[in-house]
Give the backbone structure.
Amino acid sequence: MSWAAVLGSSALEGELAWLGAMAFIDPLAHRDRYPLRAALGLPVLMLAALLLYPLGQDEWALLHRALMGLVVALLAYSCARLPLMGAAYCAVLAQVGMQAVHELWMAAQGLALGGSTLPWRQFWWVEVAFSALLFALLRFTACRWMPWNGGYDVGIGQLASAALLALLFSILFELLSQGVGVVAWNEAIVLPAVLGQFYCLTVLYLQNELYKKGVLQRELNTLNLLYEQQKRQYANARRGVELINRRCHALKVELARLRAAGAPPDPQAEQAVQALDAMVRTGSDVLDTVLTEKAMQCEDAGITLNCVADGACLEFLDPADLYGLFAAALDNALEAVSGFAAPDRRLVEVLVRRRQGFVVVNVANPVHGSVAIEDGLPRQKNHGYGLKNIRRIVRRYGGQLTSDVQDGVFTLRIVFPRPAP
C-alpha cells in the first residue's frame, strides 16, 4: 500500500477514534482549557493511528485496539476531571462504542449496496458524517446518562469486568470473521457483530447503573447514619444548653445576693453572665440551641459569629432537620475561616428571614481563593456529606439550595416555600 493510502487510512481512523472518544468525554466535568485539550486530541489520535498502522493486520488487531484505547484513556484523563481508573473505564466504553458504530456503518453499506462497500478513498467523508451522527446520538443519550457527578469514579473490579467484557466481544468477533474465512465484509459477519457490540454496550450500561445504584445505597446509608447521629447530637446539645442556662440563672442569683450584701463583684463571673445574656434569641428553641453551641465554639476559636435570624419562620422544620441543617452549614463555615490569621476574616454571618411567600436562609463566610461550584455545592473534598445532608434536608421540604462566591465571600443560600397556614 502506498504512503498516501497509509496516511489517509490513519487519518480516517484517528478522526473516527476522536469522534468516539469525545462522545464519551464531552458530558463529563472538564479540566481547564478543555476546548484546546480536546482539539489537540485529534492530531494525537491520528499520529497514534499512523504509528500503530503496522499492527492493523488480523493477528495484531486486538493489540492495535488495546493501544489505541490507551491513547484514548490518556485523552480522557487530560480533558476530564477523572482519576486514572475512571479515564481507563471511559476509554473502554469509547472503544466499544467506536467498534459498534464502525460495524453499523459496514452493515449499512451492505444493506444499501447489496453486499458491497464504498471505496473509502473517494467516500471517506460519508463514513465520517455517518459516524458523527451516531456518536452525536450516543453523546446525548447513554454517554450523558452513564456518568456519576460528572465522572466515572470506578473501582478496580468494575474496570476489570468492563475491560474483560469488551475483550470477550472483540475476541468473539475476530474468531468469527477469521473462522469463516471471509475476506470482505458481508452481512453474515457484520450483522451478528453489530448485534454483539450493541449487546456489549447494553451490558456495560446496565453494569454501570448497578454500580451507581450501589454507590447511591452506600451514600444513603451514610446519610441515614448521619441523620441519627444528628438527632442524638441535638438531644445532647439541648441538654447542655439547658444546663448552661440553669447554671447561668443560679450564677445571676448568686451575684445579685453578693451585690446586695455589699461584696465586690467577680469580674469573670460578671463577664460570663453578660456573654450568656448576649446570646441570640431567635424565637426557635432548636435554632437557639445550635447557635449557642456554635457561638461557644466561635468564642474559643476567636471567630466572630453575626446572626440576624427569625427562628419562628422555621417552625415547619423537624427539630432534628433544623439542627442538622444549621450545624452542618456552620461547621463548614467555621472550618473555612479557621485558616485565616486576620481577625476581620474570621467571620461567619447567618441570616434567616421571611421574604414574600418564602423563608430565606443565608450562611456566608470568607474563603481562600476561588471555589468551584458544581450542582449548587462547592466541588471540594472538605465539603462532603455535611452539605449533601443539607441538600437532602432542603429537598425534603421542597426548597432550593444554591451557593456562590463573590468578592472572596462564599454564601450558602437556601430558600424554603412557606407552608400554608
